[in-house]
Amino acid sequence: MKDRIDEIRFYLKSKEVWKNCWIDTETLKRDFRGVEITKQIIRSVGSISANIEEGYGRGFGKEYPQYLRIARGSARESKGWYFRSGMLLPPEIITQQTGRLDEIISALTNSINTLTKK
Q: 72, 11 in Cβ contact below 8 A?
């Protein structure tokens, strides 16, 4: 049985960012300074899809937009952690991941605005 959450583009993109983050942290954790960044970035990136999932699971009442706001905050935090990783990760990875996070932030903002107008 197909889960309809898998049709939401910003959710799929958040899973893509997570997958890449997992790979990126292999590089980060090789440096003692990157170990602390790894802990933070794993939590913030993981929180994006987790909050989308929890909000979706609660239905489309007033709680759903609130969980999307939390996911958006986690995406912004993740973007900040990627910028702070710039001394350890190649610039193309930072650009790629922050670009994806910008897309997620924009899509979440549009969804929040649409849901709260109803």
A: no
Cβ–Cβ under 8 Å, residues 27 and 41: no
pLDDT exceeds cutoff 90 at 112: yes
Model confidence pLDDT, tens digit, residues 4-21 = 899 999 999 999 999 999
- With a threshold of 0.70, does the pTM exceed it? yes
User: In angstroms, how far is the first alpha carbon of the chain from the final one?
Assistant: 29
- Give the burial class of 61: count Cβ atoms within 10 A of its Cβ; 0-12 exposed, 13-18 middle, 19 or more buried: exposed
CA 85 to CA 65: how far, in whole Å? 30
Question: pLDDT tens digits, residue range 32-57?
Answer: 999 999 999 999 999 999 999 999 98
Contacts of residue 10, defined as CB under 8 A and 6 or more positions apart, other chains included, come to: 52, 103, 104, 107, 108, 111
Q: What is the pLDDT of residue 109?
A: 98
Whole-number CA gyration radius for the chain? 15
C-alpha torsion angle, residues 73, 101, 8, 72 (rounded to 10): 10
